Fold each of these.
Amino acid sequence: MTGNTVTGAESLILSLEHAGAEVVFGLPGGAILPAYDPLMDAKKLRHILVRHEQGAGHAASGYAHATGKVGVAIATSGPGATNLITAIADAQMDSIPMVVITGQVGSSFIGTDAFQEADIVGMTMPVTKHNFLVSDADEIPMTIKKAFHIASTGRPGVVLVDITKDAQQAQTTFEWPEEVGLLGYRLPPRPHPKRLREAVELMLTARRPVFLLGGGVLRGRATKEVRELVDESAIPFVTTLMARGALPDSHPGHLGMPGMHGSVSAVSALQRADLIIAIGARFDDRVTGRLDSFAPGAKIIHADVDPAEISKNREADVPIVGEAAEVAVGMLKELRAALEEDDPRDYEAWWSVLENLRETYPLGWTQTADGYTAPQKVISRISAISGPDSIYASGVGQHQMWSAQFIDFENPYTWLNSGGLGTMGYSVPAAMGAKVGRPDMPVWAIDGDGCFQMTNQELATCVINEIPIKVAIINNSSLGMVRQWQNLFYNQRYSHTDLNTGHGTRRIPDFVKMADAYGCAGLRCERDEDIDDTIRAAMEINDRPVVIDFTVSADAMVWPMVPAGVSNDEIQIAKGMTPEWEREI
């Protein structure tokens, strides 16, 4: 339908269809109601009615992460729009391509404190890639085209489109624009050949090089190209929390995840490297520890699609601006050309040290002192039984770190978590969005009992819309990560972290009864010997969501750990225990 007279609301729905949107997660309200009327008749758009706007945002984010497509969320003005802010900030920090549509009060009411008026454009400006206020129905198609283009190109991010109610109700002629017409918006340049050559020269002469692969490898859809570069270079690599699965865990060059709760081999490799080749990584504080002590002897090659990230935290010796895939292809070409002339690489001693670290300090856990189930065991068994051809979405806290540590990731786009913002409540709606996008894959929401209670109302959305996710509640009856810090740094004064949901408590709520009330299958596992059978039972249920209450020990802690604000050299493998650095180069 092009050239036809329609309302602005109809133009919005047609624009979303022309932009390639297939699924919209949303909740109607007064200021967006004009758009919901034609949405009812849309032929190409599936609308999923959520129970809270934050759920719509996380679901759109999970959908985008799992599929690579732009996620779409929609809400009304005022509280509907402000309820989306957490999900918007979350997706923006993790570079998720997302378009958020909000209704706004009529143009004549803006600035009058009208009912359900909120300056959502002003509020979200710091946490979006871009945003628009549309008060003219004729501008809707071009604005939507711009929004999808900005959200999905360069460094992906969130674009908010706020549309006044009168613009939705006005008559207009729908014309889908051929060109985007974005003055001042430039896509990243191709990587500079001189920089690529300089990077390869450093790679060939280094003795202790390591790749630092970040979430940009996934966002740039560059896993194939980066793997070819890693394989050809014979250089070990680490994958950050946001890059888990970018390359397979089983790859012989994989040292693990770096950072506050990273593996000893990964953290130590970065600290002792003489060259770090960072692709799509931010050098954020959770990876670097105390910045002035991070990788003191390393030169830095920093490749990123966003020039603002390069040298922001750590000065780059070789800065490379460009798409991750193009950077990897360019470096591989230069590397192969150089190796045809000479191969000066000498990584043998380096690999000897790294192999020793991997063998001496593998990830693991000890039996709990209270005899209750170890949460790490639960997560490792979910990984083993459901397998790498599953999608795993976690909440935030201890269970997030254990999931990143003990799930075996062999495929990209199978690990969803809130990395930058650390949003409790992310898991269930994100898993829901991922399952909508990839319905043929098992999707697990691995959640904490605290996180789960923030967004579990989206189970209703899952049941009604036949989205059969599986929720594993790692129920230690507490705000686990906060409790761990209280244990280590606050003299075991557990101030307001007991949630009364597990062993020996009132079970408020009882998660199995809650699951039943929502129309889900509810299971509980309290003994080690029942873990496998419980997981297998959940795997066999595919006609509705499954919620499993895994009641586990509250005393289990995440190790290794680099305490906040100290050097990564002070990594602890257990309370008061640090690795013995016996073998140096």
Note: The chain is about 35% helix and 15% strand.
Amino acid sequence: MSQYQQDLENMAKLKASQGTAWNAISPEYAARMKTQNRFTTGLEIAKYTAGIMRTDMAEYDADSSQYTQSLGCWHGFIGQQKMLSVKKHQGTTAKSYLYLSGWMVAALRSEFGPLPDQSMHEKTSVPALIEELYTFLRQADARELGKLFDQLDTNRAQGLDTDDIQAQIDNFETHVVPIIADIDAGFGNEEATYLLAKKMIEAGACCIQIENQVSDAKQCGHQDGKVTVPHEDFLSKINAVRYAFLELGVDDGVIVARTDSLGAGLTQKIPVSSSEGDLAAQYNAFLETTPVNSIDELSNGDTVMKLDGKLVKPVRLPNGLYKFKENTGFDRVVLDCITSLQNGADLLWIETEKPHVGQIGDMVRAIREVTPSAKLVYNNSPSFNWTLSFRQQVFDTWLEEGKDVSAYDRAALMSASYDNAEIALEADEKIRTFQADAAREAGIFHHLITLPTYHTAALSTDNLAKGYFGDEGMLAYVKGVQRQELRQGLACVKHQAMAGSDLGDTHKEYFSGEQALKASGDDNTMNQFDVVD
């Protein structure tokens, strides 16, 4: 028996137990409303989606072609439309998540207005967006199920078979999917991280991504000036997130440990080593130092330490930060990742400066020498110039293979004049297969684009404004937007229904019967879209 059928039976028994007072209540309507609102709390969502992620991770371990994907969404409506589209085109929401980007929260959701990705926005805006996203996804469930219930009623009234419709209701796949949520560097100390993680989990987050930058000096992963913290500091925040999951009963919650060490050349403090070769000693071994042969070589305020049996002075900048040695990023990333996995993290995030399967794969193979099950969440970032990067990668490969590249200027490969050239076509094919290739060869379990809907909103608005305020006038909207919505079957062409008017009408009918004043009558202009093929 399906959950819907079981709810229907239970509602009928409950109504009968109440005598005549509940005569106006329909058990079927009550069961429908319960089915349309499957999740009543964010914690229910977090527990449900954590199970999905754990299953997906196990399936990826068995078969690397089973990777997962997401797009960053900065508003509930964007997340809703994304999942409706995924389900429409793919037939399922399986392996498709949402990503909550701290960058987009800062740029689009702060009361201060647009802010850089430096943890300057209100920390409460992060759980608020998680709750908003799930509110819209739950509304997508209610809307789609509502259409099925309407069809069920129509078939019944016309004496038609209802088995297929009932089966679709009984086996309905929810639009509620996992969210990987960005907590930046924790917005403070480990207690602050714990408190914010709790709010995010209570809002529905089953997966929290945290980075090893200094919280009060946090920078976007694709900008300069990044400062990392010692391993002990980062691990305390991983512990804080795990305790938050356990306290709230999400025992299989997922933690993504992000390292920015590949592009970070600075640290804020020198950890204290208590034994030879411990984490602090390994971290300090990466510091750029100068030997100290005499106390006379020291200036007022200099820091001195014993490293590998020698007295050295770490190189310190005027702002008090310490420098790492050049070309140590790779090794620091590997140590970061191994340490995080050995101390409670479930997945890794390596922030890179370019999308290169070989570079990512080299780091993952080094990590897997110690932790064989290591796998990544990877940022398919809009900060990369994908076109130029992959054309240059093809150019370099051809050059190594001895192929004639004299027709191409490597520095100018972004030029549109190359768009139909062989090098561009091969580069585009590598971009197309990047996710599958990287999942197979570089251990990437989850591919995400952090800021795609930020860019699509800007691009589509620019195209509309260019035509609407130009010679096309109203045709710019009709041809470029509405006609495309109709041709491509976008549900939001009926924006009143998407905003909940049909659901409201149904509820009014439940509550008021024939007295219900409904909006979806003959004079509703949305009906104009019913006749379009």
Note: The first strand starts at residue 68 and ends at 72.
Amino acid sequence: MDNEDKPKAPQEDAGQGIPAPTGAANLIDTDYVIGQDNITSSKFGINFDLHGKVFMFSALIILIFVVLTLALPEQMDPLFSGAKSWLTGNLSWVFLFAANIFVLLTIGLIFTPLGKVRLGGVDAKPDFSYAGWFAMLFAAGMGIGLMFYGVAEPLTHFSTSLEGSSWAPLGGAQGDTDGATSLGMAATIYHWGFHPWATYAVVALALALFSYNKGLPLTMRSVFYPVLGERIWGWPGHLIDILAVFATLFGLATSLGLGATQASAGLNYLFGIPNNNVTMVVLIIGITLVALGSVVAGVDKGVQRLSQLNMGLAILLLFFVIAVGPTLAIATGFFDNLLAYFQNLPALSNPFGREDSDFVGGWTAFYWAWWISWSPFVGMFIARVSRGRTVREFLIAVLLVPMLVSVLWMTAFGSTAIEQLNSGFEGAKNAANELQLFEMLGQLPLSSITSFVGIVLVMVFFITSSDSGSLVIDSITSGGKVDAPKPQRIFWALLEGFIAIALLLGGGLGALQAAVLSTGLPFALILLVGCYSIVKGLMSEPRG
């Protein structure tokens, strides 16, 4: 591309709300001004500044979906079930193939000279300390999932492997307790290791590069400038952003639905509050309203403070389980599980010719679709807090730090639950997924306190997810502005809650999974094209 041949001096402002590069950077020469296609108005004291086509199409289709799902639950339930079965049965390989490409790209960039490129220009300085940066990376990326699956997934994979069932990863290890433990933990770490964080890193790196170094809006369409050129400002770009909104909303709704399910189960376990749809709907409404306060406060005051609070509580709960659980098994298991993960990684990530189709379709494909759906949300959020980092520093941090914490978390909670099962306690194994964490904690000291902390963690992760998601969707639907009026963020935060309620009432967990798979598939294909754009964009940047 002619306008990317050599670095240009930074402009005074790369766009409204987007800081100009500090030092040399290769700005893309375009006449487009961020927000030029926006509709701005102020009625009844409420300000709006939004991209008309992206906002209206996204909001209208989502609202129609919510109304239909709530009005026709009996008709929608089989539709969701059928979509989920078809996608996992026929297209699981697409998700596995795409995720493998993301891993190979991110690891490859770490070891190439392109890793020297600094996000925001050669003289850019980081906006946040390492502590604040890591807390926001982790809390936004994995929170509710770790709470929901921290006991459920290791225990399930161990049990199916030991029994040799059709749901066992890689055929299982029937009758071999040690082999089943190793395989079960390897399969769990596979779902929380390099692949999800590489997916997030690809989107985050692309957005940060094309916004902070190239001067384009902080939206998904900007990533595709090397492919589409000026057409990103027309309908091709509109469609990319609309798909990003759908993927983000349904990915968030899945997490919020899981969080409400687990919080309801925990409240029933501790206080006897009925565990039913009414409780879950009330929880979603209540926590969504609380999230609005954080949305209004913004990233620095709202998200960062809540993220750090949640990280503190999560670390306390983690260390408690390590201290009072099977400490030696957890300590040795951390390294054993990492080794098992790397040993089984080639087989687990193979997209073709798999005999463990139930495991691939029911677990891996859903997870990859979930991470891909979350990637615009988590990726844009990571991009917003990562200006000033080099590509190499950025990728190492995003890939390794959250992954190692996830491995420690899964090892601590999973090993404890497996030890309990091997000692004769089957309460956690026989409980529903959302209740297994509380059943495991119930066998440890101070169970009432730790279970209550678990409920609080789920709720605060719920808030940070809703909060961060609203900021990101608002940026996409306001044409890339990062300082759009707050009423728009409030609208999206409320809509996230409505979608979670609609999906829970319209088909439960199956509906949540179907929605994520349906939006994750087209977005996986879009992200594969985005990988080319990243390399193309990095090659034109000066390296400090």
Note: Residues 486-539 form the longest helix (54 residues).
Amino acid sequence: MVSDIKQVPESPVGKTGTEDGNPGPHNPGPAGVQQETPAQSVTPEAPSEQQETPSEHQEAVPAQTAKNTRSLSWLLSRTRIWKRRALILVLRVSRLVSLGIRQIRPGLRFLWRSLLRRWRRSLEFRTVLTTLLLAVTSFAIVGAYLSNQIANNLFQERLAQAESESRFNVKQVQDTFDGAQVTDQSSVITLVYDTLTAVEGRGSVIQRRYVFEAAPEQTKPRNRWVESRASDQLTVRVIPPDLRKAVQSGGKQQFWASTQFPVGNEDRPGIAVGNMVTFNGTAYELYLIYDLNTAQQTLDEIQNVLWAGGAALVLMIGAIAWYVTRNVVSPVSHAAVVSEKLAAGQLQERMVVKGEDEVARLGASFNHMAASLQEQITQLATLSQMQQRFVSDVSHELRTPLTTVRMAAEVLFDARDDFDPMNKRSAELLYHQVERFQSLLSDLLEISRFDAGAAVLDAEPQDIFQVISHVMEGAAPVAVEYGSEVRLNSRQKSIIVEMDSRRIDRILRNLLLNALEHGEGKPIHISVAANHDAVAVSVRDHGIGMTPAEAARVFDRFWRADPARARTTGGSGLGLSIAAEDTKLHNGWLQAWGRKGAGSNFRLTLPLRQGGTIVKSPLQLEPADIEFPGAASERQMLVLDPESGSTMPSQAVGGKPQQPDAGAGEGS
């Protein structure tokens, strides 16, 4: 460490050491304490020049070392502090950036979704945006092509001028050098300077500069009086190396290359044209640099004009597309709005018709169609109301005489044993047909309530298995009559559903009786399953089945697949229609599947809570087999024995239910 040594005045106690200023044998010890020998003593009363004191050099070096140590420690501490502050600043900035991104991302996502929604729903927006995109793409392609062609043409023009002028100027320089009669250094320098200055300046169109450099590695004697010259403080570094190699090896040929050279604080594009010239037996490289800044400015102005004109043209195309599309799409949008209002029941809505063009004729035709539809719908609504009122009135009027007729039929039926065989048979037929007539009348009254909108849902939480058990018990006599076995398959023991138990009971009873009637004595399987938002009940028979077309019409009123088929169980032909209406009140699904010779399957799907929606039914409509999905050990079954007509619980084990008696038959 180098330290400064300052001269300080001698202290009153004198100094100790040798004459040359170096400390004597009495140097400070390791602890920096001055030691004293027996031969020397220092007293305050008699100061002497022989008294030992630290030298100036010994005082300055430790002081400077301590000062440097303190400076170094202070610098390290300040470095740590600033490093910690920089880290904190970086963390805060990154936190702010991440927070900004999180806040901007929802807005960008909302904007993107709005654009997609607008794209899907607006023909006008889609047409205008597509037109703009195509116009921008076309202009970008055409503009890039035109700009490239203009740039190439300008460059080729400037290059041809530069080559022509270079040949002429190089010939003049070579002629001047060949005819020069100079021998001293100053004359050579003056001649070269004047000749090159004459070459420099403006050409016919573009400004010209030069670089004059002695060729390296020459075998002939060289004139060392002229090494290099250049205009505007240029150097040979602005010349591309490839161009120099070509000029050095090309002899009298002329070469060119694109380059950049500094002018003030900017770099300008240019063309460097190189040739070899000789002077006094020495070969020199002469490069003429032509400034292309004016051509570049011209090209930039042309490109700016192209971009400005293209932007204006794109805006004009967009405005034209918007105007044309609006004139075409507006009537269509208006027609869509009017049609939506017509579909909502506002039959008096009409389109505004202007002019006599195709759009006006379309509007007139649309209004005519709307008027015709309004008239027909009004007629149908009036006829439907008259039919509903007629059915309701007739049904109500028939209840009183039908009650009287039924009472008389019951009296005759009870006394049929006292009649002769013909009258006995007549009493039995009268009793059964009156009962069937009363059932038909009840169904007609129920249908009239549905049509009038007077049906009300009385929903309350209840276990659906109780309703199913009640339906199975009620259908037991019919099952015994047909010899069909009814089985209930379920993985749950209890499913609570908010429902109108009376209407669900009627739906399931209609489905089960329909399956028994068409099941041809084969087993009937009732399956129950539930998910998080719905419960499904399917009634599967293996009888005559039906086609998909028949399954699509099975819920129509009074519809029968075979009108000539005789009914053995009676019925009004309205049971499935009423079941469909009851299902609609529950906001549920009632669907049918069938196949000729393979039976049919009816599936009822209900939401677990009133007002809920169904996403997916827990059971499939088209049954894969008669087995209920799930492990056999998890299935709970109720078996309706056709012989005894009773419902018995059984636990399925290994795919076969273990039953109390043999009359229950084999498990499904």
Note: Residues 456-607 form a domain with the Heat Shock Protein 90 fold (CATH 3.30.565.10).
